[in-house]
Design a protein that fits this description.
Strand content: 5-15%
Shape: elongated
Largest sheet: 3 strands, antiparallel
Number of strands: 3
Helix content: 40-55%
Distance between the termini: 76 Å
Order of helices and strands: EEEHHHHHHH
Structural class: mainly alpha
Number of helices: 7
Strand order of the largest sheet: 1-2-3
């Protein structure tokens, strides 16, 4: 492929994917084929994105408030998004020790009786008991919901995780009754 005179404007479409000529790092802007590489659009932006560029973009958006419509669109876009087990483990590891002791936002503070009663009421509505632990009826409802999710899920890996979790749950129920 010959390099055209206007390198910045060239877009090549191969198999319905757009490719762009990008200037290699530490190369001069000359009309020499060795100074350029062909990248897809997303790889091109990642390739060109320097620390300085990132900082300029973050400074431009800092302190700007989003409108209610924008926030609603953002929340709708995330609806139904499932985080993988691997990602959840990464998040968990990164959060370990961050909210314990003096780092906890409630450290040294006490909950008023009014707030405590509201928490208890919501727990009773949600789990059927005063404490955060669900009673047997709530547990069965939760397991039924998990079974429905299991039937609707088409990913084999998720199905195995759910079925293994249900097996452990029912095994524990059997041992407790004896």
């Amino acid at each position: 492929m010959d390099l055209p005179t206007d390198v910045k404007a060239i877009i090549v479409i191969i198999n319905q994917k757009k490719y762009v000529w990008a200037l290699r790092h530490k190369c001069k802007y000359e009309f020499n084929r060795k100074n350029f590489i062909m990248l897809c659009m997303s790889c091109h932006t990642k390739y060109d994105m320097t620390k300085e560029w990132r900082n300029n973009i973050s400074k431009a958006f800092r302190g700007k408030k989003k409108s209610k419509e924008t926030l609603e669109r953002m929340s709708k876009a995330r609806l139904g998004h499932r985080v993988t087990l691997k990602t959840r483990l990464k998040i968990s590891r990164s959060r370990k020790g961050k909210c314990s002791g003096k780092d906890n936002c409630m450290y040294g503070k006490h909950i008023s009786d009014y707030t405590r009663n509201k928490v208890i009421e919501s727990n009773i509505r949600r789990t059927g008991t005063k404490h955060n632990k669900p009673n047997k009826v709530s547990r069965l409802n939760m397991s039924n919901a998990q079974i429905k999710r299991f039937k609707n899920d088409k990913n084999d890996k998720n199905r195995k995780q759910i079925s293994n979790g249900l097996k452990r749950y029912y095994r524990n129920l059997c041992y407790k009754e004896k």
